[in-house]
Automatic annotation (TrEMBL):
GO molecular function annotation: pyrroline-5-carboxylate reductase activity
EC number: 1.5.1.2
Free-text function comment from the UniProt entry: Catalyzes the reduction of 1-pyrroline-5-carboxylate (PCA) to L-proline.
Species of origin: Pseudosporangium ferrugineum
Keyword Aminoacyl-tRNA synthetase attached: no
Domain Pyrroline-5-carboxylate reductase catalytic N-terminal, chain residue ranges per copy: 4-96
Keywords: Amino-acid biosynthesis, Cytoplasm, NADP, Oxidoreductase, Proline biosynthesis
Protein name in UniProt: Pyrroline-5-carboxylate reductase
PANTHER family the record matches: PYRROLINE-5-CARBOXYLATE REDUCTASE, PYRROLINE-5-CARBOXYLATE REDUCTASE 3
Main location class: cytoplasm
Length: 268
C-alpha cells in the first residue's frame, strides 16, 4: 500500500493525517515531519504515526504531501528537493504556489499534483480541488483523489483555476464563520442571550447549507422562498444591499485571488 508522508504537519497536515486514519489508512503507512520536536511528540501520541525527518520521509514514502506554509516551501525544497527520486509523487497543499515552483526544485520528471482543500476536512466535509502539474498522469490524480475523497468532495480543475479556487473554497470557511459570528452579535444587539443566538444561527447555517446541497435549487430560488412581500426578510436584504455586501464579497474574493498570485510572485 502507498506510504504517504505529510511534510510539515501543522493544521492542514494534521487534518489530512487524521482524515486518512479515519478512512482506514493504516498508521504504519503514514509518516509525518515537523519543524519542532514538541509538535512531533504531540502527533505521535495523538495518532500513533511515525515522526521522521524530511530526509527519511523522502526515502520511505511513495507520496510526499507538502503542507508547509508557502513561505517555507523554498527552504524545505532546498533541503530535500534534489534528493527526491523522480518516481515519488509530490502533492502540494500550498496556497498560491504553482506546480512549476516545485518542478524547478525537483529532479526532471518528478510528478507534481496541486491540491487545495479546506478545514471542513476535519468533519469529512472538505472541498478539495485537484490539478495535474508537470509529469502528473491520470494515475497520479487518482492517488490524490484516493487520499482526499474520504475527507469530503473532490473536483478536478485546471491548475490555472487554483488561485480562484483558493479564494472561494480554500479560504471560504473563514467567510462563513465571520458571517455567523456577525449574525450572533446581531442577536446580542436584539437582546438574545449569546447561547440562544449561537444555537439559532448555527442550526440555520446548517439547515441552509443542507438545502443548498440537497434541494438542487439555485440559491436565488431558496432566498426568494424566504422573502415574503412587505415582510421581514426584504427589510434586512435592503440593508445588506445598501451596505454593499454583494460588492464586498466580489472585492474580497478578488483580493484573496490576488494574494495567492502575490505569494507565487514572491516565491519565484
Ligand atoms: N489553513 C487553511 O485553512 C488552509 C491552508 N492551506 C495551505 O496549507 C499549508 C499549511 O497551512 P497551515 O496548516 O494553516 O499552516 P501551519 O503553520 O499550521 O502548518 C505548517 C507546518 O509546517 C511546519 N514546517 C515548516 N517548515 C518545515 C520544515 N522544513 N520541515 C517540517 N515542517 C515544517 C511548521 O512548523 P512550525 O510549527 O514550527 O511553524 C508548521 O507546523 C499552507 O501552504 C497553506 O497555504 C490550504 C488550504 C487551507
Ligand atoms: O489563508 C491562507 O493563506 C490559507 C490558504 C487557504 C486558506 N487558508
Amino acid at each position: 500500500m502507498t506510504v504517504v508522508a505529510v511534510l510539515g504537519a501543522g493544521k492542514i497536515g494534521e487534518l489530512v493525517l487524521s482524515g486518512l486514519l479515519r478512512a482506514g489508512w493504516p498508521a504504519s503507512k503514514l509518516l509525518v515531519t515537523t519543524r519542532r520536536a514538541a509538535r512531533g511528540d504531540e502527533l505521535r501520541e495523538r495518532y500513533g504515526v511515525r515522526v521522521v525527518d524530511n530526509a527519511a520521509a523522502v526515502a520511505e514514502a511513495d507520496v510526499l504531501a507538502i503542507a508547509v506554509k508557502p513561505q517555507d516551501a523554498g527552504t524545505l525544497l532546498a533541503e530535500i528537493g534534489a534528493k527526491i527520486p523522480a518516481d515519488k509523487l509530490i502533492i502540494s497543499l500550498c496556497a498560491g504556489l504553482p506546480t512549476g515552483f516545485f518542478a524547478a526544485r525537483l529532479p526532471e520528471g518528478t510528478p507534481v499534483v496541486r491540491v487545495m482543500t479546506n478545514t471542513p476536512a476535519l468533519v469529512d466535509q472538505a472541498m478539495t480541488a485537484i490539478s495535474a502539474g508537470p509529469h502528473a498522469t491520470g494515475e497520479h490524480l487518482a492517488v490524490a483523489e484516493e487520499m482526499f475523497k474520504p475527507l469530503g468532495a473532490t473536483i478536478r480543475v485546471p491548475e490555472s483555476q487554483q488561485d480562484a479556487v483558493t479564494a472561494l473554497s480554500g479560504s471560504g470557511p473563514a467567510y462563513f464563520y465571520l458571517l455567523v459570528e456577525a449574525m450572533i452579535d446581531a442577536g446580542i444587539l436584539l437582546g438574545l442571550p449569546r447561547q440562544v443566538a449561537h444555537e439559532l444561527i448555527v442550526q440555520t447555517a446548517i439547515g441552509s447549507a443542507v438545502m443548498l446541497r440537497d434541494s438542487g435549487e439555485h440559491p436565488v430560488k431558496l432566498r426568494e422562498a424566504v422573502t415574503s412581500p412587505a415582510g421581514t426578510t426584504i427589510s434586512a436584504i435592503r440593508e445588506l444591499e445598501n451596505h454593499g455586501v454583494r460588492a464586498a464579497l466580489l472585492a474580497a474574493l478578488e483580493a484573496a485571488r490576488d494574494r495567492a498570485r502575490e505569494i507565487a510572485a514572491q516565491s519565484t
